[in-house]
UniProtKB/TrEMBL annotation:
<keyword id="KW-0411">Iron-sulfur</keyword>
<keyword id="KW-0249">Electron transport</keyword>
<keyword id="KW-0479">Metal-binding</keyword>
<keyword id="KW-0813">Transport</keyword>
<keyword id="KW-0003">3Fe-4S</keyword>
<dbReference type="InterPro" id="IPR051269">
    <property type="entry name" value="Fe-S_cluster_ET"/>
</dbReference>
<keyword id="KW-0408">Iron</keyword>
<dbReference type="Pfam" id="PF13370">
    <property type="entry name" value="Fer4_13"/>
</dbReference>
<protein>
    <submittedName>
        <fullName>Ferredoxin</fullName>
    </submittedName>
</protein>
Length: 64
């Protein structure tokens, strides 16, 4: 599984950082950064919740 962010859609609301802080964070400029592109199985539930909770649908998960 690979996590990615659509930069054009993302408005850096940071909802995902609260749901999966080990995978997402905001950098010094306030831009979303994917810290772990290939999350571990124990991070899967939090990542999927973050992806499905994104108000702008800017996050995606693909099988890789």
């Amino acid at each position: 599984m690979k996590v990615s962010v659509n930069r054009e859609a993302c408005r850096d609301t940071a909802l995902c950082t609260g749901l999966a802080p080990e995978v997402f964070e905001l950098n010094e400029q306030g831009r979303l950064v994917v810290l772990v592109e290939t999350p571990s199985p124990d991070q899967l539930d939090d990542v999927l919740q973050a992806v499905h909770s994104c108000p702008l649908q800017a996050l995606s998960v693909t099988d890789d």
